[in-house]
Structures are given as structure tokens and as C-alpha cells.
Amino acid sequence: MGEGISLKEFRQALDLIIEASVEENGGSRIMVEDEVNNVELLHNLMKKARNGSHSSDILVQCDGFIHEWESSGRISAAVQQLIALLNRPHVRSALVAAHDISNGRYSPELPPVPFEVDDDDGIAVKIVKLVKKANTSNGIGVTIKKDSKGRVVISRVLKDSIAEKSGCIQEGDRILEVNSLNVQKMDPTDIALLLTDMECGSVSLKMHPADPPTTMATLSNIHLRALSDYDSSSDRSHPCTESGVSFSRGDIIELLMCGDDYWWQGRRIGRGAFAGTNAIANGECRDSVGLFPSETLMLKRRSGGTIGKRRDMDGLGTIKSLSSKGSRDFDETLPYESVCRLSPTSFAHIRPILLIGAPSAGRNELKRRLMTLYPKRFSSTVPHTTRTQREKEANGVQYHFVSRSRMEEMISKGEMMEFGEFKGNLYGTALSAVHLAATKGMPLLTPHPLALKTLRSPSFIPFIIFIRPPSKKDFINSRSAASLSRGRPFSENEIDSIMEQSQAIEKAHAAYFDAEILNSDIECALSDLIRILDSVDSIPSWVPLSWATREDR
Ligand SMILES: Nc1ncnc2c1ncn2[C@@H]1O[C@H](COP(=O)(O)OP(=O)(O)OP(=O)(O)O)[C@@H](O)[C@H]1O
Q1: What's a single GO BP term from this record (predicted)?
Q2: What are phi and psi of 379, to 5 degrees?
Q3: Coil, strand or helix: which one is 111?
Q4: Residues 297-349: pLDDT tens digits?
Q5: In sequence order, which residues have a C-beta less than 8 Å from that of residue 370 and are 6 or more positions away?
Q6: ipTM confidence
Q7: How far apart are CA 329 and CA 549, in angstroms?
């Protein structure tokens, strides 16, 4: 029916429709030769209805054609069938759909933006009416400011907002009236209130269009990991708190616009290594798009710098430096880390699993159980020690037995992941032992949190799991003496200390946790851990961008 269908193809299509109808209903067919003219007439009508005509025109043409045929007095069986077909609702819908598609009409038609000349000022203005969905609490999704000449202009159009979807509002548009109220001398804060307080869910804006028209450069596939917490509702210099994005350390944010030096646009997509995949329900919810401080603003605030209530700048600000920096695997001074999603097959070696938590949170208990359940799947490191080898011990099995001077040399050269002294002997785990373990299975490590500084690097590509102790009450209930490998119950002081240390570890390192386990009931904790480890093996996960660009990863 569209531009490209020839008369021959059209006739074949009709033949097929009629054939199908005959098969369905019985009876005879055959479009006789003298009816070919009628087919040609139908084809021409379809062609006429093609460009620019409205969807309903095709049905008017269709009805006109039927009427013409019926009143011609020559209604053969074939024509009757054709008329019956053209009267069927689904055939008529198919005609409308084909007509719309051939005209490239895929979405609802919106009325054109009315432009008119303002009688008072003699300038061209556009009038835009926006209607808010009943159940949304946000405004229309713009921020406004006074420009250098003191005129009120749109400074930002938020991604995915009503304003952006309308396609009628641009950055730089000058606001003249809101709901017929002249706002040219009003303060932007008061105008913002008018825009949020949309009577009957709609707002009408009279604006002087930006000149030249502005476009919004939207980013795609740029993601950040928040390395600090941010609460937009308590940020007094936020340009539009209703559209603020808040986040906690470790949240993954989809960055959509960063043309503004101080305020970026994006949405929080979840938390941890599997954010946005629904693999592990970890704060999974796709928040709406909003504004949050750029890296520049975060750093400025940290260094004590102040900014005015609003300031707008152009240019693709700091994201370039953010994403192109080399190794930033453990830079605690930065507010964000650029991340990308890598599939398990993109890593050159098996990722070590780091179980991080307070002493007695249960890291070794979980490790022991995993090693017993799957001895071939997991591996562990063999530590170094300077103590004397005992009779039943073999070098390289229980320990690597080395001299004190050799171990001190390894420590001074930075070859140890961690080390300590006990009863006059040095003990520790060498970084080479982690690499060796990764050749034998998935290494399960329970290092001190300080070792994260060394281990969170592209040469180890670790997956970090926080083992969280339950509430004090659940801790007491779950750790009955019978369940403890240590044989004696925890004292009240010991439990308090575990809770405190756990909070301190979380505060210092939460940004780098890929996942977390609540270790209350040991069986539940174990099955949660297995589920996460299965995902590490099968699902793409967020890692620092610098890991993806390293050739030796
Ligand atoms: N969910 C649990 N239910 C009952 N007992 C547990 C649970 N988790 C751990 N335990 C017991 O608590 C004690 C401490 O656990 P574990 O040794 O695994 O701690 P850890 O985090 O490895 O700390 P550390 O380095 O001090 O050993 C052990 O006796 C262990 O059997």
C-alpha cells in the first residue's frame, strides 16, 4: 500500500487475501479479467491516500471505493468478497497500520508548537502547555536562572522529564509568562515555585525561543561508582532539590549529561558489581534522572571552596579527565570512579574473592564451608612464615618456610599482601601466592581491609564481598556455643567490639564492596555467598574503567 508497492504486487496481495478467505469460508473465487480495472482503481486510491494524509483518510477512501463499486450495479462474487473483506475491522485496521507505517508515523501526533508575535513586544514567542501525569510529584523538569542581562531563562532541561519529552523547551528559552502571569521581573526561585505548583496538573509557558536553538548533548553508556555519600535534600545550593539524585558509596550512577561544570545529570541504577542486572537484589531500583554535583563541585567543596547558588557553564567539563585517567583503583580522594561492565570471559585470570569484615564476623567459617563443599572449585593461598618447620609439615603445603632476612626483604620490596608478628615469628601472605592460587581455582582470601589498597588493582581484579554481622540480638541467637568452632560463646564486650569494628570497616571501605552477605544464619549466608560466586562466574560486573583498558588484565 505504501510507496514501493506496484500494481502487480498489490494484485497478488489481494489474490492471497481472497484465497485465504475462500479457504476459510468455502465458495468460489477468481478475479475475472474485467475486474482488473477495479483493482487498479483501488490501487490508485491507496496511492492517493499515501503521502501526508491522515490515518482516517484511508478508511474514507476505502468506503468511497466500496460505495462506488456497490452503486456500479456489476457486483460479481469476487467483488462481493472484496467488499466483505474491506468491511472487516481487522482488515481496516491493517490498512490504517500499513498507511501509517508507509508514512513513517510511529508515535502519537502532537500539535505543532504555536509560534506567534507578541503584541506588546513585537517579538516571536512560543506557547507551550505541559500536562503532568497524575501520579508524579516532580515538576516539569527544568531549572531556571537569570542570564547576564537579568532575564529569566531555562538553564537546564532534565533528561526524561516532561519538558524534555515535549521537545518544545530548550536551554536558553526566555520565560515571559507562566499560566498567563508575567514573570519577567520575578525572581527565579518564585518562578520555580509556580512551575512546581502546577494547577490541574498543567502549566502553560510563554517563551521567547533561544537563539540560536540549543541542543542537549546526551551521553550514553558512561557510568560512575560513587565513592562518597550525597544527600541532595540537605544540599542548600542544589538548583532544584525536587530533581536531586542522592546516593551512597558504592552506588552505580548512569551519567547522562555533563555539559555543566557543577551539576551533572544522571540516575542511580543500583549498588555493587551487579547493579542494574537484577542478578542480586541489592538496592535495585531505577531511580529517575536528576541533578547531582559534578566531580569539580565535589572536590571544590571538599577543599573548602564555595560556589554561588547557581552558575552555568558550557563545555564537556570534567568527564574527560575522569574517564581517561589511568589507574585510579584506590583513590580515596575522588568522589567518583569511572566504571564499565565487563563479562567474566574478559578477564585473563580467575578473580580472587576477598571476604572482608570485622574479626569474628564469620569470614573464615564461610571460607571453610565453601572449601569443603567445592574443594576443586576454590583455592587458597599458602602463607609464609619464619617459624621453624614442624615434623609433619611440608614446605609449600602448610607454609612457605623462609628465613627472617628473606621475609624482611620481601616486606621491604612490597611483595607481601599482608604480614604480622606472633610470638617472635613473622607470618604473612605473599602477592605471588595469590597469583599462584588463581591458577588452581577461584582463590578465597580473608585479608585485613588494609590489604585492599594493594589487592584492588588490575593485576588481581578481585571481587570484594563484605561479611556483615547481624544485629546484636541475632548475633547472640545465631552464635550458640554449639555452632562455634572456637568452643566458647562471645562475651557482651566482644560482640560490641565486633559491631564497632564492622561499622568502621564499612565506613572506610564501603565504596569498594562489590557485594555483601549478612551472616546471621550460617546456612542462609552460605547459600547467598554461593549465589554471588555463581554470578561472578557468569554475569558481567562493574569494574573500574582503568581495569578494562589495561592490556595485562
Ligand atoms: N553464622 C554463624 N553462625 C554460628 N556461628 C558462626 C557463624 N559465623 C561464624 N561463626 C562462628 O564464629 C566464630 C568466628 O568466626 P570466624 O572464625 O569465621 O570469624 P572471622 O571473620 O574469620 O574472624 P577471625 O579472623 O577472627 O577468625 C567461629 O567460631 C565460627 O564458627
Answers
A1: cell junction organization
A2: -135, 165
A3: coil
A4: 999 998 876 554 443 332 223 333 343 333 445 566 789 999 999 999 988 88
A5: 378, 444, 526, 529, 530, 533
A6: 0.97
A7: 12
Q: How far apart are CA 365 and CA 517, in angstroms?
A: 13
Residue of 354, 356, 364, 523 to mutate, ligand 1, most atoms within 8 A of C-beta: 364
Which whole-number Å values give the CA distances from 179 to 116, 117, 184, 206, in the listed order? 16, 18, 13, 8
Judge contact between 445 and 353, C-beta under 8 A: yes
For the chain, how long is the longest CA-to-CA vector?
A: 115
> What CA–CA distance (Å, rounded) separates 24 from 498?
77
Helix axes 7-25 and 36-48, enclosed angle (nearest 10) = 110
Rounded distance between C-alpha atoms, residue 22 and residue 68, angstroms = 24
Q: Is 468 in the pocket of ligand 1 (CB under 6 A)?
A: no
Assess whether the C-beta atom of 364 lies below 6 angstroms from ligand 1.
yes
Residue written as grid cell 491516500: 49
Q: Can you read off the three cell numbers belonging to residue 104?
A: 513513517
Residue 396 has which C-alpha cell? 609449600
Q: What is the mean pLDDT of the chain?
A: 81
What are 414-453's pLDDT values in tens digits? 999 999 999 999 999 999 999 999 999 999 999 999 999 9
Under 8 Å between Cβ of 179 and 203: yes
**Which atom of ligand 1 has the smallest separation from the CA of 368?**
18
Q: What is the pTM for the complete model shown?
A: 0.69
Q: Residue 177: what are its φ and ψ, rounded to 5°?
A: -140, 145
- Measure the CA–CA gap between 62 and 509, rounded to whole angstroms: 70
